[in-house]
Write a structure and sequence with these properties.
The chain has 3 helices and 21 strands. The relative contact order is 0.13. This is TrbG/VirB9 family P-type conjugative transfer protein.
Length: 278
């Protein structure tokens, strides 16, 4: 047996044409109907009947693509895997009565071995036109449901290009967000308004130091022995309001015109000036 020779990786490469050494045929060849062969590592490779100068198409399962092909005789046989990664391998004998083996490795890591036999001089003039491969081992069937272990070069280049495009888009988005944040920080001081009034003596006794607002929130700062309750007054009716409190800072998630802080018998009323409400 001649040593095995790798033919192509991922996308098949058709071998260069060599001088034909075919003999005269005894009878015309006829294509057989497509059939399915089971391929198992523990069994003898199935025989594929090939016809002189006729194409036999070998088809892998739908989940797989051809990653590599090895063959014993690359002189008297033509092997073609196409120009893109696919499920198909074409074989064509160039001499009568020739034989060789072919080993197909799929992108899922499955290995399929077939025995090719040219049958022009057989009494049966039919050759295999299409062969569908069915994995005969459970491990091979299980690998069909998994991700490929070999990635065709074209798919890898496409994935790299898509990753580079996504990375560039992410970088542009981050840059835009950073610019927006910087603009907001530069403009934020101008959105602060210190237009509240309160009884500073009562405020000092309670611990209140400052009240201000921006275009969305109201803030109260102080040093309090205990956290006073915060009320908003609308239409002369007080109501407790929600706020976040940390390290002496009240953050009220809205603008309020007036209210008061209260703890025990201590109470400090505050109001926005009329000019601030415009």
């Amino acid at each position: 047996m001649k040593p095995l020779i790798p033919l192509f990786v991922a996308a098949g490469i058709m071998l260069p044409s060599l001088p034909l050494r075919a003999l005269e045929l005894n009878h015309p060849l006829q294509p057989s109907a497509p059939r399915t062969v089971s391929v198992s590592e523990s069994q003898t490779p199935p025989i594929i009947r090939a016809g002189l100068l006729q194409c036999t198409l070998i088809v892998l399962p739908a989940e797989e693509k051809v990653a590599n092909v090895f063959a014993g005789d690359t002189v008297d046989w033509v092997f073609d895997g196409g120009h893109v990664a696919s499920r198909f391998v074409s074989v064509k004998p160039k001499v009568v009565n020739g034989s060789t083996d072919i080993h197909i490795v799929s992108d899922h890591g499955n290995e399929y071995t077939l025995q090719l036999q040219e049958v022009s001089n057989d009494a049966d003039a039919h050759f295999d036109s299409k062969i569908r491969i069915d994995p005969g081992d459970k491990a091979a069937k299980d690998r069909l449901a998994q991700l490929p272990v070999f990635v065709p070069a074209a798919d890898l280049d496409k994935a790299k290009q898509e990753a580079a495009t996504a990375k560039a888009a992410q970088a542009a988005e981050l840059k835009a967000e950073a610019a927006k944040a910087e603009q907001y920080r530069s403009q934020y001081p101008g959105s602060l308004h210190f237009d509240f009034t309160w009884d500073e003596k009562k405020g000092k006794e309670l611990g209140l130091q400052q009240i201000w607002r921006d275009d969305k929130f109201t803030y109260l700062r102080g040093q309090f022995q205990e956290t006073p309750a915060l009320y908003e007054v609308k239409d002369k009716k007080p109501s407790l309001i929600n706020f976040d409190f940390s390290n002496g800072l009240y953050i009220v998630p809205k603008q309020i015109d007036g209210g008061y802080l209260e703890i025990g018998k201590q109470k400090v009323d505050f109001h926005r000036s009329p000019e601030g409400r415009q």
